[in-house]
Amino acid sequence: MIQSVLIANRGEIAVRIIRACRELGLRSVAVYSEADRQSPHVLLADEAHLVGPAPSAESYLKVERLLAVAREAEVDAVHPGYGFLAERAHFARAVEEAGLVFVGPTAETIEAMGDKTEARRRMQEAGVPIVPGTVEPLRDPEAALEEARRMGLPVLLKAAAGGGGKGMRVVASEEELPRALEAARREAKGAFGDDAVYLERYLDRPRHIEIQLLGDTHGSVIHLGERECSIQRRHQKLVEEAPSAVLTPEEREEMGAAAVRAAQAVSYRGAGTVEFLYQDGDFFFLEMNTRIQVEHPVTEMVTGVDLVQEQLRVAGGAPLSLTQEEVTWTGHSIECRITSELPEEGFLPSTGRIGYLETPSGPGVRWDGGIGQGFEVGLHYDPLLGKLIVHAPDREQAVARMSRALAELTVDGVETCRDFHRRVMAESDFRTGDLSIRYLEEHPALLAEEEPGAEGRDPRTAAALAALLEAERRRRLTPPRIGKEGEGRALSPWQTATRPWAGRG
Ligand code: ADP
Questions:
Q1: Ligand 1 centroid to residue 473 C-alpha, Å
Q2: Tens-place pLDDT, residues 472-504
Q3: Does residue 80 have a cis bond before it (omega within 30 degrees)?
Q4: Which pLDDT value is given to residue 29?
Q5: Where do the DSSP E strands lie in 85-206?
């Protein structure tokens, strides 16, 4: 078993890993940049080391520096979290070459899954359904045209080395194809240094459904069911839930078994996720993420399995703590990503100092955060401030619980997407579970300041509503105080709404 872990990350995921370490009795070693001196992960860890200035290229991505800290702190293992170096095969290799345990799969697995055509080829061999299309890279426009005709338009061009949606192009007509091919190859070359692209059938209204996996070094691989993450903006997930509102138990078993085959095909160890597109009862392999994911808590809530603790146990050579038969699912869980962005203004990032922070609590509520009062939110890193997660007996109650919890969340000093999430929780297609990856395009009103459905209202009601929203916004900006000037504590809108007397004294 490992005794100590260096956490090569920051923010909420670093906090999450430190918590798992503490519960397992492992020593946690944090790293931080100059911008993160006051971060909760630095304050929570058993020890913390400065690794460099704010830009991540000079701190959290500096492999040499991270390994030097690992030696100095005498840790046995390195947990990469997600993002940063989590899916860089060269980092996994460097960690193992330094005689340390990398908390994740092998460098070979990361490499194989990082190349989309290679991943598609391997999945096809393992009998996992892939989106119909080519598995060989395309360069010749004639060959591409022939393939596109065979599949039927529209098609999607994708970069083999792709990620983050770069080098991706929807092609609606044969005439567009040669030009789109050129453009996609150029973009792929620029972004990944590799111009290999391939074709896939374009699905018009799929859902994003993914399967959580766990594997150990003794040959066991199990799945923990699905998460639905269809509500996305430019491939960034915003709301996730488990289980999906549409999967039948049979479909869950079928997708789970396919994901397990996918993992076995690459001798997977640790926590991983197989992402699928799901449409009309069919599901297709999209990609495999060889790391813990942002949305892992919803799986933890419905299965009761601590995924980060499992990662650490497996990394230490222990077998998985449960078998497939022992995995059970209870109730429904939803996660909202709370970012310092303004959906009402095209997700404009907001910066500032957190003057006041109040996180929700009460039955079935979990806050996985990476910020604290006094924390400076800048532009150097991902805008994720924290994640609000709820668990309830069924989906309807989970939605109600999330609405309640969102209303209790107060972050002052920086704008957040909280109100966007409140509008989603109230929107009727979301409430009935009619989702697809086009959800935001289909509901542009959610990105506007007013409540959805406000169009049909009496203009006087709409004006009153607008005034109310504005009043609430102001109240959030200048919270009322209790007691004498200067010694008071700020109140959240929830408190002032439920205890109208509280702000007066
Ligand atoms: P990347 O690795 O660049 O993020 P993915 O292959 O994961 O690319 O695809 C990103 C997103 O694009 C998916 O989450 C989905 O929203 C959309 N997408 C991918 N493939 C298809 C497809 N064949 N049809 C329709 N949408 C797709």
A1: 36
A2: 655 555 444 443 433 334 444 444 444 433 333
A3: no
A4: 98
A5: 101-102, 155-159, 169-171, 197-201
What whole-number distance in Å separates Cα of residue 29 and Cα of residue 152? 53
**Tens-digit pLDDT profile for residues 220-276:** 999 999 999 999 998 899 999 999 999 999 999 999 999 999 999 999 999 999 999
Distances (CA, A) of 125 to 118, 122, 135, 266, 285: 11, 5, 11, 11, 12
Average pLDDT of the chain, as a whole number: 90
In CATH, the number for domain 132-201 is 3.30.1490.20
pTM of the complete model: 0.88
Nearest-CA residue for ligand 1 atom 8 is 165
Reported CATH class of domain 207-447: alpha beta
Residue 264 CA to ligand 1 center (angstroms) comes to 23
Render pLDDT for 77-117 as a digit per residue (tens, 0 to 9).
999 999 999 999 999 999 999 999 999 999 999 999 998 89
Ligand 1 centre and the CA of 133: distance in Å? 13
pLDDT at 462 exceeding the cut of 80? no
235, 276, 441, best to mutate for ligand 1 pocket (most atoms within 8 Å of CB): 235
Domain boundaries, the chain: 4-103, 132-201, 207-447
Q: Which atom of ligand 1 is found nearest the CA of 167? A: 3
Positions annotated as catalytic residues are 291
The tokens describing 174, both together, are 């044969």
- What dotted CATH number matches 4-103? 3.40.50.20
Ligand 1 site-directed mutation target among 168, 208, 227, 274, most atoms within 8 Å of CB: 168
Coil, strand or helix at 252? helix
Cα 390 to ligand 1 centre (Å) = 27
